[in-house]
Specification:
Blueprint (H helix, E strand, L loop, with lengths): L19 H14 L4 H15 L5 H13 L4 H44 L3 H29 L3 H16 L3 H19 L29 H19 L10 H12 L10 H11 L5 H12 L9 H32 L3 H6 L1 H26 L6 H15 L5 H15 L1
Helix pairs in contact: 1-2, 1-4, 2-4, 3-4, 4-12, 5-11, 5-14, 5-15, 5-16, 6-7, 6-14, 7-14, 8-9, 8-12, 9-12, 15-16
Length: 418
């Protein structure tokens, strides 16, 4: 006798709970093939988890993307953590995020070893010289694309221009934070009384996914308190000077990158100005040239741009430093993502939050343009630099060539023409 269909169950609902090993290997595979940045990784996750395996509802995936865009940290990894949390709670979030990061981590550690071992060879130096104008072109095209959505009126244009000018003229970590805070306050004053521009952000949380207390799927109050306390500790250690920590110690690496993980809003190349100020100008862990190489190497891996933290950690403290920097840059923001899932609906409906973000996003566009200028100054004063830069701009803006082809091609041209 055929069973009756549950009217409350959609075709997107998972048939049974998935194992942690299953989650790990699914996201390990995704981490190996998702070249092309945030959108590519999210597309692969959506295809594998929702369309193919029907482990989640499409609406829940959209909710996770919306939340990730409002929180600090890499959007793609935070969405993966959200998916893992929905399927297997906290441990599922950790396993899923770990699986998707590992392929890029191991690849970047190998590339970092080659760079620091053989980087002084003329051929290798020419390859990395070709990276600089290519990375500059990538950042400029990224900022231009962002500006079409984030800078839509004169006040936002002025905020973007002011942010770029101040960062180029003064610079410094605290100046960067001041710009972000001031832009948020300006956005709140200018746009707080009207309708938020991000009206396409979905504002729903499935009632079936809430427990009776409305605190989210299986989310205990104790775990919420512990995770919140950890996040506060990370921020305090980052903000307040801690005596006794050596500049190149593992403890300093963890404190620095875990703090940055909770301060980096916007995704992708938006992170570059703040990281650059801290690791180049502040801690002096890497030179400007090495930082540019870290960004370039991060682009030839399938992972998010923050995987470049592995390069910096490796330079400071070898393999242990690379592993710790990677863990610290991803773990806190993923933990915040899981913690915020229980108040997802309230965050997305906040008019004040949306208004502040309108100001912050405009300022961030200016900061990204400023980062392109700083990195571009490191290019060799040579006609080849101009050719590579112009070629990359045309390839990116006219032909929409994937970034994964840009960086290797620029390196080859650098080796052949410089």
């Amino acid at each position: 006798m055929p069973s009756q269909k549950d009217p409350n169950k959609t075709s997107d609902s998972p048939a049974k709970p998935v194992s942690l090993w299953f989650l790990f290997f699914i996201f390990l595979k995704i981490g190996c093939i998702a070249f092309g940045g945030f959108t590519a990784l999210i597309a692969v996750v959506e295809n594998d988890i929702i369309r193919k395996r029907k482990l989640m509802k499409t609406e829940d995936m959209l909710d996770g993307i919306s939340l990730a865009m409002l929180l600090p940290g890499p959007v793609a990894v935070n969405v993966v953590a959200f998916v893992g949390y929905r399927l297997r709670r906290g441990i599922g979030a950790f396993v899923s995020a770990t699986g998707v990061i590992l392929p890029s981590f191991f690849l970047l550690i190998g590339l970092s070893h080659i760079y620091f071992t053989y980087g002084e060879l003329p051929a290798i130096s020419k390859v990395f010289s070709g990276f600089i104008p290519a990375v500059t072109a990538i950042i400029i095209t990224t900022a231009w694309g962002m500006s079409k959505k984030a800078v839509t009126d004169w006040p936002q244009f002025i905020m973007a221009l002011a942010a770029a000018s101040i960062l180029l003229g003064i610079g410094g970590f605290y100046i960067t934070l001041t710009i972000i805070l001031a832009a948020g306050a300006a956005g709140l004053m200018l746009y707080g009384s009207g309708e938020p521009k991000d009206r396409d952000v979905p504002a729903r949380v499935s009632p079936a996914d809430r427990d009776p207390a409305g605190s989210g799927p299986g989310f205990s109050k104790l775990s919420a308190v512990i995770s919140t306390a950890l996040l506060v500790i990370f921020l305090l250690l980052f903000s307040i000077p801690v005596p006794g920590l050596g500049n190149d110690s593992l403890a300093r690496i963890f404190v620095t990158f875990s703090g940055m993980s909770l301060m980096l809003f916007g995704g992708g190349f938006v992170f570059i100005p703040l990281i650059q100020e801290i690791v180049v100008e502040g801690m002096r862990w890497v030179t400007q040239s090495e930082f540019t190489s870290a960004i370039a190497l991060g682009q030839v891996t399938p992972g998010p741009i923050l995987i470049s933290a592995a390069f910096i950690g490796y330079k400071v403290k070898g393999l242990a430093g690379g592993a710790l920097a990677t863990f610290a840059i991803f773990f806190p923001s993923a933990l915040l993502m899981v913690n915020a899932s229980r108040i997802l609906d309230r965050i997305k409906r906040s008019r004040s939050m949306q208004a502040a973000l309108q100001g912050i996003r405009a300022a961030v566009v200016g900061m990204v343009f400023a980062a392109a200028v700083v990195i571009g100054k490191g290019a060799q004063f040579h006609w080849v630099s101009l050719v590579i830069f112009a070629g990359c701009m045309v390839a990116l803006m006219r032909f929409k060539l994937d970034i994964v082809w840009i960086i290797p091609s620029a390196g080859i041209l650098g080796m052949l023409l410089y």
